[in-house]
Design goal:
Layout (H helix, E strand, L loop, with lengths): L10 E4 L14 E6 L17 E7 L12 E2 L10 E2 L12 E12 L2 E5 L8 E7 L14 H7 L4
Antiparallel strand pairs: 1-2, 1-8, 2-7, 3-6, 3-8, 4-5, 6-7
Length: 155
């Protein structure tokens, strides 16, 4: 079994925010530009039939020394419990991978215009997937109160 995985960006986020800010992503619009040396518009054929995307990206602005591997209070909020890094969606993750669902506004050649992608200008995009309702959770869901409170102003 391999101990390392080589990943190469399929594209980059262009536009939208330039600074990492935790909230108010709902109306932020950006463009995802595919790496034209590796992909043509053929890679996106049919994607325009979907309303939403899942975007896997790299939190490239998180320095190695800021990576968390244990428990912490989300956003440092003393009112919230200490929870492990895998019980939250913070950017200081061991592999610095982000996953976001956003609205697909348009496909133009090898570019995607999106809204609500919580990644900043220049962020490397590792994968794109169309959002399909059947990939959502089956049955009821649950989450702690602090998570609902944290997400109140996120989108």
């Amino acid at each position: 079994m391999a101990n390392t995985i080589d990943l190469h960006p399929i594209g980059w986020v262009s536009g939208g925010r330039t600074e990492v800010v935790d909230d108010d992503w709902g109306q932020v619009e950006a463009v995802i530009r595919l790496d034209r040396d590796r992909y043509t518009s053929e890679a996106l054929r049919g994607l325009d039939a979907f309303s939403h995307l899942e975007v896997v990206f790299h939190f490239d602005r998180v320095p190695e020394e800021r990576i968390e591997t244990t428990a912490r209070r989300p956003r440092g909020n003393p009112d919230w419990p200490e929870v492990g890094i895998f019980a939250q969606r913070g950017k200081n993750r061991p592999n610095r991978l982000g996953v976001s669902r956003c609205r697909l506004l348009a496909v133009d050649g090898s570019e995607l215009r999106v809204r609500g992608l919580d990644a900043v200008d220049g962020t490397p995009v590792l994968d794109l997937k169309p959002w399909m309702a059947e990939f959502g959770p089956l049955g009821s869901t649950a989450q702690p109160h602090w998570a609902t409170e944290l997400m109140r102003e996120y989108y």
